[in-house]
Structures are given as structure tokens and as C-alpha cells.
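Action item from last week, closing it out:
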Amino acid sequence: MHEIETGTDKLQKLAKKIKSWGASYGFQQVSIVEPDLTQASDHLHDWLSKGFQGSMHWMSEHKDKRYVVSKLVDHTVRVISVRMDYLADDNMIAVLKNDQKAYISRYALGRDYHKVIRHRLADLVKKIEGELPELSLSQRPFVDSAPVMEKPIAEQAGLGWIGKNTLLLNESAGSWFFLGEIYTSLKLPVDSSHQENKCGNCRACLTVCPTNAFPEPYVLDARRCISYLTIESKDAIPVELRPLMGNRVFGCDDCQIRCPWNRFSSPTKEDDFSPRNNLDNTSLVSLFNWERSEFLDKTEGSPIRRIGHERWLRNIAVGLGNASGSQEILNQLIKKRNHPSELVREHVNWAIERQKEKLNIA
């Protein structure tokens, strides 16, 4: 097989159809790019050399499959890059200010976005193939599920620019959106749109970070990032970082909440991303009392389930330790001080000592 070519007019019409289909599937933007990831790979290697990836060892794997698109999917010459808005509520700050509540990153409140977007991209692939049944196309959809450099690809596709918080920012949509890609061997016409970096002198995202996870603009030290600590890391959370985490028990959105460009974000139109089980406004104690079976039941189809019940309790214990002194919280923590998991016990005992200090209990 070799890269697929067909008539220019036919490809132009197909590109328009792809964007129309994408809109009908709920994507707010669809763009076609022939990416050059040379510079992005240089940045990745520099980042890895400093150990900023923490225990995410997969970041250093797959080598050139990350930045040579045809090495990941044979004969790829174009990438179709898409974005889908996901913000479903506007009470983030109120929850963050209430240390009795649990803050869960907004992307994780509803159905797992991997499932939502992957299904629609797979349908889009079928539609493209249906337009050219005479060709044997090499195509594959991705949603944060393979060594795909999605943000550099999206930036080159004109979906936004990579901001100082290392997220993709869009001048008319902020950053509350998911990305997805289709690698294809079809030589579609590429889009020339581009959004220049408009971060300017703003440092809002850098200064608001609770754990000071940005050693410099455009560089994230994952080892200090609350999203990494509560989701990716399987280890004990460093003691010195626990008090800085507040009530953030699954991810962190502070750098997005503070970003001025998110004034232009729009609420999602996807019911799948609406909060489930009141997770956008629930007490820490309530979530801490979920037994394993309840955790599995209430996180079915949710990205939260991937961390498992043990790390769920680990994270919430930290939140409870950071809450204002409360005899109720202390009592709930004491009930789990003999939990079978050493990881849970360590964080529960830390939280107990924190609560005792606040309550002036010897």
C-alpha cells in the first residue's frame, strides 16, 4: 500500500463533507493537517531528560512513533484533528472554596470521553471509507489512547495554541475541550488556519497553581501536578505536597479556571458530559464512605474508575486532612485507620493527625 491519491476536486469536496459530518457528530471544530512534529519531539526529549514525567514511563516509549505519524499508522499522510467542548457547570470556584466538598476535575464528571469521542470518530472513519469504496485506505481514530502528540497536531491544525499551562487554548473557546484524531492515508487538502499564541505577559495560570508545578512557562513538572498525583501516580502522595492539594481529589482545573481565555468558553451540548451522581457538588465524607462495590457502581462508564477504590480513598483522605477541623471528619477517618491497604492507612493516619491538630486534640 502507498499513500492514497485521487482527484483534487473530489478530495476538496470530501474534506468539506468530513467537516460537515464532524459537526453533526458534535465536534465544534474539525481541521486537516500534514503535521511536522520535529520541534515537538525535541521539546518532549528535553522534558523527559529532566524527569518531569515522574512515573509515567510510557512517555519515553514508542520513540519515533510519537512524532513520525506514518510509523504509528502505516502510510499516514494527513491527520484530521477535532475538538469537543465538555464544560457542563459553572460552580467550580464555589466548590473549591468549600473545604468540606470534593473537587473533581470537570472533564471527569460525566461519561468517559474516550468512549464518547472514539465511537464518533470510528463512525466518521466509516463515512470516509464509504465515499471511496474503491480504495484501500489506512485509517485509525485516536482519543488520548496511543503515542499521539495531540496538542502539537491540534496547534498546527489551527485549533488553538499551546499555552503557558501546556494546554491547548482557543481564542473563541478557551480550553475546556477534548481532542481527537484520525490518522489517514488519504491525501486530503490541508487547512491553512492558524491561531497565534496570545498568552502575552499573562502569568495567571502559573501563579494560581496550588503546588507550583510550572518551573517555567510552557513547562509542567508532572511530579508536582495535582492531576498527576491524584490520577497517574500509584504511590503515596509526597507529604510536603498534601497540604497544598486542598479538596482536589481527582485532577485539578485551577490553571483553566484562572485563564482569561476561558471567558469565551461555551457550555457543552453533550448530555454524556453532564455530572453524574452529584459529583460536581458532593461532600468529602460522603465519597469517603463509598465501599468498593458502591465505588464501582457509581463510577461505571466514568474516567474516575481507572484509579480504583484504593487510590480514591487515598485522595479523599488527603482532602479530609485539609478540611477545617471537624469531629465528624475525624470520626470517619478513625473508622478507616485499620484499612487493609497500607497506602490508604498511611494517608488516613496523616489526615487524622491533621484533624487532631485543628481540633486541639492531643
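Closing note: Residues 249 and 312 are 8 Å apart (CA to CA).
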